[in-house]
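pls design
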């Protein structure tokens, strides 16, 4: 299966992607995670992109396309894209990659959410510094304050989850990424799912859509 998860920052893409990739045996390709790993390792790419992430701006397309293509090459058995593509240029590059590899996207899922909901979600989001599991101090707190339920490591707040940067990221989303919804709605197998519900409900709905796509039932 080859899946794309679309949605604004904070819609729950990362949380859903982690669970669904485990459930369906797919590679989780999250360009935000790949970029943060480059920054942590202080690679040339990491040094080049750090400022963009800090300011809530999109990293130049060529950098992200190269990172994503490398991961796609390594993930022949199937994948779920989370946070990529984020511009029409990236979507066209993905289409060209797939055409060359004689592959296609089986399903695009758009996780929708209102802006007011997103700001409060993101500013109360915490994630595990080690395994990446995501919590929310308001709606999905860890069992022990500040510690990951799964591995016990410290929870941290992402630098770009401050209110000012969240608002900037949402503006960038509206300008550059929202047009992808129309693009995929017209060109691909596309389903919209309401994101502002308990994570388990959202997972169950998406899992059903993936099953249906796998059985060719859409
Ligand atoms: P995320 O973890 O998906 O919220 O991404 C965090 C940040 O990484 C974004 O605000 C961008 O600065 C950068 N980023 C992640 N994915 C992309 C992408 N596909 N294109 C450009 N920038 C990206």
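designed seq:
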């Amino acid at each position: 299966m080859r899946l794309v998860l679309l949605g604004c920052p904070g819609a729950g893409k990362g949380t859903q992607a982690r669970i669904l990739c485990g459930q369906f045996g797919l590679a989780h390709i999250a360009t935000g995670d790949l970029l943060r790993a480059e920054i942590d390792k202080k690679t040339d790419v990491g040094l080049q992109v750090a400022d963009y992430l800090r300011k809530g701006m999109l990293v130049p397309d060529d950098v992200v396309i190269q990172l994503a293509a490398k991961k796609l090459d390594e993930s022949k058995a199937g994948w779920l894209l989370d946070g990529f593509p984020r511009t029409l240029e990236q979507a066209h590059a993905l289409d060209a990659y797939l055409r060359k590899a004689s592959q296609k996207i089986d399903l695009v899922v758009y996780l929708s959410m209102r802006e007011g909901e997103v700001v409060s979600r993101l500013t109360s989001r915490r994630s595990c510094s080690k395994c990446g599991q995501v919590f929310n101090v308001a709606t999905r707190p860890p069992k022990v304050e500040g510690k990951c339920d799964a591995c016990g490591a410290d929870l941290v707040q992402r630098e770009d989850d401050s209110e000012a940067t969240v608002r900037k990221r949402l503006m960038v989303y509206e300008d550059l990424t929202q047009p992808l919804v129309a693009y995929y709605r017209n060109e691909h197998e596309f389903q919209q799912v309401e994101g502002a519900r308990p994570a388990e409900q959202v997972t169950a709905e998406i899992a059903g859509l993936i099953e249906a796509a796998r059985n060719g039932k859409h």
